[in-house]
Amino acid sequence: MSKSSDANTDQMINSLRDTIVAMVRRDGPDLSARQLAVFLTCYLRGDGSHTVRGLAAELNVSKPAITRALDRLKALDLARRAPDPMDRRSVLIKHTIKGKAYLRDLCSIVNEAATQEKAAPVRKTTRTRRTEEQRRAG
Q1: Are 63 and 52 in contact (CB under 8 A)?
Q2: Where is this region: Disordered (predicted)?
Q3: Strand runs labelled E in the chain
């Protein structure tokens, strides 16, 4: 890997860390990685008419895992289930007002973390420091 690629990766990892830390520190809901993946897939991909089966296929996880994540999102009012008018056996996952507000907040947090990361000098991740130490030693 080139040095610029390492620096870019370090920047992205640090930005991700800053985003997660900001999300954990705020007063809003604390979502697991799976819940966040389901939430973001529902809100950022397609027209907001996802099914459990479709989410499971797209995220490559089991339907029961998607159902558990959706149960949590529903309890937090970040998503809701609605019957599919075309197929009454199927359930569609729909957006909520609170979910749209959560997405706006999340976008602000991500943008702030990215802005701070660009302004700050590149911090080296543990992986990069270890790699540099190994190069010097060997």
Answers
A1: yes
A2: 117-138
A3: 79-84, 87-95
Q: Which residues contact 45 (CB under 8 A, 6 or more apart)?
A: 58
Domain that holds residue 19: 3-137
Here the tokens at position 42 are 């529902």
For residue range 61-82, list pLDDT tens digits in order.
Answer: 999 999 999 999 999 999 999 9
> pTM, whole model, 2 decimals?
0.76
66: CATH:
1.10.10.10
Q: How many domains, in total, are found in the chain?
A: 1
* Cα distances (Å, whole numbers) of residue 99 to 13, 15, 44, 93, 132: 26, 23, 12, 12, 43
